[in-house]
Amino acid sequence: MSEENLVQLRDESIYPDKPVLKAVLGESFPAFEELLNLFEEHDLTHEWRFYKDGKAWLCKVQKKKKTIVWLSAWTGYMQAAIYFPLRLLDDILALNIQDDLKSKISETKNVGKSKPCIFEIRDKTLLLDFETVMRFKIESK
Questions:
Q1: Handedness of CA 129, 134, 139, 141 (dihedral sign)
Q2: Staple 59 to which of 32, 63, 71, 104, CB 3.0 to 4.6 Å?
Q3: Measured between alpha carbons, how far is 83 from 61 in angstroms, rounded to an integer?
Q4: Where are the domains of the chain?
Q5: Could you give the CA distance from residue 84 to residue 37 in angstroms, rounded to a whole number?
Q6: How many CB atoms are located within 10 Å of the residue 61 CB?
Q7: Could you give the CA distance from residue 111 to residue 50 in angstroms, rounded to a whole number?
Q8: DSSP-assigned letter for residue 129
Q9: Contact indicator for 100, 135 with CB cutoff of 8 Å
Q10: What SS3 state is found at 50?
Q11: What pTM was computed for the model?
Q12: What tens digit of pLDDT does each residue of 25-58 get?
């Protein structure tokens, strides 16, 4: 497996602060900062925590106590995952997002009774679609 396909931030003793994230994300760091701005605009909080089961630092993004997004840092990009109950799949696919993203969501393997919507944030091109899906998650029951 090539290094680009490995989740980073595996050392529990190294907190993923700005310099650490800049080093991992490289040229995609400005897009990550835009993500943080989006979270702030929607009154979301985010917290980095080391998860022993996955042996990596993950960032949980929440609206009050509802988890909206999970972030993980990979070499050269941030992965953002939004999980929905399968019953909402048709509603997600009806959103005003790119067709190739709809295909990717449909083809992504379910996790239990949830459908993950996974975004590789390398630059700002996916942020509009990401925000659309994120807003739907915030508003969904």
A1: positive
A2: 71
A3: 12
A4: 3-139
A5: 23
A6: 23
A7: 21
A8: H
A9: no
A10: strand
A11: 0.93
A12: 999 999 999 999 999 999 999 999 999 998 999 9
